[in-house]
Amino acid sequence: MEQPRKAVVVTGFGPFGEHTVNASWIAVQELEKLGLGDSVDLHVYEIPVEYQTVQRLIPELWAKHSPQLVVHVGVSGTATAVTLEQCGHNTGYWGLDNCRFRPCSQCCVEDGPESLESAIDMDAVCRRVAELGLGVSITISQDAGRYLCDFTYYTSLYQSQGRAAFVHVPPLGKPYNADQLGRALQAIIEEMLQMLEQAEGAHSCHQGH
Question: Which entry of 87, 108, 126, 149 is annotated as an active-site residue?
């Protein structure tokens, strides 16, 4: 029997600050060229660096695609490795976005938990991708930065019961080019999908007994 196709949504961000070309969106476009195999429908979106757009758009993407997984990609000016974020945070959003706006409450979801973790074990993804020998350093972080990246991640985790992930990439050429970042994203997301499938398989076995 043919496996049903899975929807995966991957987003990058538009320009902001000194990032007139946002490496995250370039990396996502490279991933789109590579694809995620025949059984995955990949949908990519560029998100503007605006809190109110994120609050509207993220629930719309979940409703439209019912994805197996949503992966948000952002750029970090201080990163020199591809960084997997384990959790998103609800409060502490002081930075102004591209519209010179910030949420009055400085939080994502009124009365939401302080932090939410991805259902995916980022340590395990990091180990497995490192073993592939892609020539790209992969690391883990517990703090996605309290700006639009963290805000987007928390919003998505809140929508999805944890079926979301966030990946920070370094600026282009510092040290990786677009092709290297695209290939790293492809390997990371394939590992994440495999882990979700294994978890679901284990869950349905338990349900059957």
Answer: 149
Task: Print burial letters for 10-49: b (CB count within 10 Å at least 16), e (below 16).
Answer: bbbbbebeebeebbbbbbbebbbeeebeeebebbbbebbb
Q: 41: domain range?
A: 6-208
Q: What is the domain-level CATH number for residue 15?
A: 3.40.630.20
Catalytic residue chosen out of the listed positions 85, 89, 126, 191:
85
Task: Give the global pTM.
Answer: 0.93
Residue 149 among the catalytic residues:
yes
Over residues 102-152, the pLDDT tens digits come to 999 999 999 999 999 999 999 999 999 999 999 999 999 999 999 999 999
Q: What's the pLDDT tens digit per position in 46-67?
A: 999 999 999 999 999 999 999 9
Q: Is residue 1 part of a domain?
A: no
